[in-house]
Design brief:
Elements: H1 2-8, E1 10-14, E2 17-24, H2 25-34, H3 41-53, E3 57-59, E4 72-75, H4 81-88
Antiparallel strand pairs: 1-2, 2-4, 3-4
Amino acid sequence: MDKCIQEIVKDKRCRLKQLPNVFAGSELVDWLMLVGLAHDRTDAVKYGRHLLQGRVIRHVENMHHFHDQPLYYTFRHDENLDTMRSFND
């Protein structure tokens, strides 16, 4: 998952709110297909839902299941992302 985090997790702005260390559901779906972990978007959504149910990721406001949409999610260990990013720079 480290490669996924490095490639899709970013700080984003939604309306007037800054969202640190997030990714859109559709970005994770694209990435899962790109690296061959899912054959199609349906498989990728299932994978994302397993990550959500396994408490690896969460919706930023804990309001949605995983969807192939521009809804924002974060990895649950996101407090370590800034440290990991600065280490890799």
